[in-house]
Amino acid sequence: MAELRRPPSIDAFGGGGFRVSGVWRPGSLLILNDEPRHWDPSSPLEVDDFADVLAAGVRASEFVLLGTGAAPALPPRDVRDAIAAAGLGLEFMATEAAARLHNVLAQEGRRFATALVAV
């Protein structure tokens, strides 16, 4: 019998953090294997910022949903290359759009990592 997943929802964002499944989480956010955790990305983003996602690879995720902050920003080439080399796709957009899309994709049962830069 398949395990019933309960992916976290992003209920609100802004003010430097996120409300995830009813719990306020200050700072940037990483959701991997349906587990929300604090994320402390560099500026600009670096490959090491995605170490946990890359280590989990395709066993945990089909792709990375990246919220880049107040505006969409192309991640650096080495980050894009490392994610692709791990066999993962990458979708990047402003954090606001990524937070909304997270909930839609989670309800569809998709397996993905969400990395959101706080705004």
Looking at this protein, list some descriptive labels.
alpha/beta
Helical percent range? Answer: 25-40%
Q: Characterize the main sheet.
A: 5 strands, mixed
What average pLDDT do the residues reach?
Answer: 95
Annotation field: number of helices: 3
Radius of gyration: 13 Å
Weakly predicted, low-confidence segments: none
Strand arrangement across the biggest beta sheet = 5-4-8-6-7
Structure, explained:
The protein is α/β, with parallel strands linked by helices and 119 residues long. 27% of the residues lie in helices and 31% in strands. It has a five-stranded mixed sheet with strand order 5-4-8-6-7, sandwiched between helices. Strands 1-2-3 form a three-stranded antiparallel sheet. It is globular. 34% of the residues are buried. The model has no long low-confidence stretch (mean pLDDT 95).
